[in-house]
Amino acid sequence: MALVPALAGAEAVAGVAAASHAAAPSSPQQLVRTAIGDASSKASAHVVFVGAPLAVVANDDVGMHDGIQTAVFPKPDAGELRAIVIGATAYVSARPSSLLAYAAGLPKAVAQKAGTRWVSIPSSSSLYSGVALDVTLPSELATIQPTSDVVELAPSMFNGQRVIGIRGKTGPAAVGFTSVTVYLSQSAHPLPVYATFSGPHGIGQVDRFSKWGKRIAAAAPANAVSVASLGG
Q1: DSSP sequence for 182-219
Q2: Of 73, 101, 148, 161, which is least surrounded by CB within 10 A?
Q3: pLDDT per residue over 143-189, tens digit each?
Q4: Are 66 and 72 in contact (CB under 8 A)?
């Protein structure tokens, strides 16, 4: 889901990277592709999302096939939603259960039957993507990749780290948003540092990346009920 901060860089490395970038310029698209490739090679990361205008805050630990998300909603249904993805199965629970419909896309009748229990959803279900979105590293990296009208911004500093912003229109993975700016570390092996999204009606999000290569300890919750048994 996700203005905030992370990571520090060595000025010497940044200076070498800047010189390298000037000597052998890459297109904005190539810069993003390189960063996505380097990020994928790390296999995991911690991502903090802050959404507007509702100030939803989510903390995710995302891996290539597994992930864990905890999202806090201040309104209109104040509460917490948790999601876990393990391979081809997503698990979701929420307090209050109305968040299952409002935030996870489950039918209201299914959310009411689920209550506060964990619900398991296979990837074959049309409800899977609504829960699993951004809870794995590949899905998160897909959302931050501009697909058209891509431009490179002037280098800037972010929390002491030199970054390059790449702006463009979003692809289909960034549901609800129309524009994304991803800020990459200016280094020989660039990584996403943060990304900002905007969309209609004042909606927006900031995603902040850290802890690349962090081990993901996702485990299937006990006693989860299948979404099919709830009529979903």
Answers
A1: EEEE-SSS--EEEEEEE-GGG-EEEEEEE-TTPPP---
A2: 148
A3: 999 999 999 999 999 989 999 999 999 999 998 899 999 999 998 89
A4: no
Residue 21 — very low, low, confident or very high, per pLDDT cuts 50/70/90?
A: very low
Query: CA quadruple 34, 67, 133, 75: dihedral positive or negative?
Result: negative
Q: Considering only residues 9 and 126, tell me which one the structure prediction assigns the higher pLDDT.
A: 126
CA distance 175 to 1: 10
Between 126 and 3, the higher pLDDT residue? 126
Chain CA centroid to CA 180, Å: 12
What residues pair up with 194 in beta bridges, in sequence order? 183, 208
Residues 11 and 34: their CA atoms lie apart, in Å, by: 21
Q: What is the CA radius of gyration of the chain?
A: 18
